[in-house]
Amino acid sequence: MKKFVNDPKQFVPEMLTGIALANPDTLKYEPKYNLIMRADAPRADKVSIVQGSGSGHEPAHVMVVGKGMLDGACPGDVFAAPPMDYVYETVKLLRSDKGVLLLVNNYTGDRMAFDMAKEMSEAEGIKVATLFINDDVAVQDSTYTVGRRGVAGNFFVMKCVGAAAEEGAELDEVVRIGEKVNSVTRSMGIALTACTPPAKGSPLFELGEDEMEVGVGIHGEPGRRRATLVTADEIVDELLGAVVPDLPYASGDRVALMINGLGGTPISELYLLFGIAHRKLADQGITVARSYVGEYCTSLEMAGASLTLVKLDDEIERLLEAPAEIAYRVF
Amino acid sequence: MKKFVNDPKQFVPEMLTGIALANPDTLKYEPKYNLIMRADAPRADKVSIVQGSGSGHEPAHVMVVGKGMLDGACPGDVFAAPPMDYVYETVKLLRSDKGVLLLVNNYTGDRMAFDMAKEMSEAEGIKVATLFINDDVAVQDSTYTVGRRGVAGNFFVMKCVGAAAEEGAELDEVVRIGEKVNSVTRSMGIALTACTPPAKGSPLFELGEDEMEVGVGIHGEPGRRRATLVTADEIVDELLGAVVPDLPYASGDRVALMINGLGGTPISELYLLFGIAHRKLADQGITVARSYVGEYCTSLEMAGASLTLVKLDDEIERLLEAPAEIAYRVF
After folding, report:
1. Which residue from A71, A196, B161, B178 has the fewest beta carbons nearer than 10 Å?
2. Range A185-314: architecture per CATH
3. What is the set of active-site residues of A?
4. Which pLDDT tens digit goes with each residue over B273-330?
5. A284 contacts: CB under 8 Å, gap ≥ 6
6. DSSP class of residue B302?
């Protein structure tokens, strides 16, 4: 296992310690619950936005806590849903009179933890809503999922609900916006290699030297098929061929296009894919009005990429443009 | 070779096309010279800042063109210095009455291209200065270098000269600042895997399943030694043990700490390293006042990381804090 790691069991806490030390003025770290939260949260005048998931998908979600995005993130161990009590304690710490919105990528373990935490929080009189994200068009059900999986498209939901909450929107309105963004967002990914969870120490699956997994999940779940590695052009055709007809996106649409790296693929290759996808969308009369290239939702060191489209309207575009400040940054 | 690529010979142009398409309002792309430049450059009221190097180190340098950073970047092919005429044409296109500053990481091929381009530009009456960056403490001379190599510490030079130029500083002053930043910046890296240039199609070197290369170069150059992979704590000791005594950084110093990913290492591991290094520096009385964690100067998909320290003073800190807007971004 070729990783920078001490005791694999301490991988997540040591990562979270690093995030907190890099952001002493803006973030707080509560080790008992793996919680990274805004230093200025909760605020009585805004809905608190929370997401948790397994670790191993960074920057999602612990590195996107901050102004205009999440108020808190409470991850589980690598590829494991957060324990229900982590979520429950997080909700209590981020309790606001305006309510708490829990974002959940659609995996069975995550849903269970968040549903139970919601129930327990409501029993204490806390106003809580949940919103499930399921942008991955690859497969209907999956290894850890009933229904579609939630993957990198989740970023757009976080960004829009985060902006709306920052502006003071009520909980119902924030939920409406999040559901709307989720409803116009579609993704699919391709893996070129597997990945190795630190505590497991060996790859999650095997992929031959000339193979790729089309429609891979972010925990290495099987996709639509195993295929021979083809050119970048053909890969983009495969991704657009699955994503575009699904909503469908159509000639005349304005979209956000994201090429998300799965962890081990350099950004040079992501921009190469972006350029190809941009051109092929233009050929279909679809205009890329907003561009996202980089790592948003990863699968440890997996080599691979996913493509996400969001159909834009004035409301979504305005919320995507709103300022935000998070730990994951260049400067 | 597991990459997203079409014809390997078109890897760099296709990447640059993607960068240009993602930034239609702020960047211009001149395919003849691999040039990515600010759409508003050159400006008569500011020194133009240019860097070029081999490709394969993205986001350096083509993705850090923009306000407060570079005015233009003219890379060569993967791991190959830009041809002299690319640099020369770039200087002509970015000619400003206030002058042009050429930043060059210290590699023999790059120095040759930039020195010749400078000479030819001066013969045409263009005011040009060059500044060589050599922050890597690993080895004195290297495969492609006389003297020390320039690696990720280069980011801090770009940031500070970019900010100074944006404020209208004269060429001499911009050079003074860049030389000062370079003089207080030190780096060293460790590779866990090799990398594969697209046109070569096979790894640049071989590294055993339990081996790491201590002091690796960003083109896979040998470092100080090949060693058995150890814990993250021990790796940080090794890096700090080389970097701290070199300047030296001492108790009472305020520093910027960068943990830079070499391309294939997930940001979770980088934050883990950051947390460890932060604590070990505090133990030595050195205060981390500014934090940089992510990919700044990579080596294709190499798994690995480098650590950079910059000794801060008020001037450097102010320039690092100045706003900047580049293609490489989250939102």
Report:
1. A196
2. 2-Layer Sandwich (3.30)
3. 57, 219
4. 999 999 999 999 999 999 999 999 999 999 999 999 999 999 999 999 999 999 999 9
5. A244, A249, A251
6. B
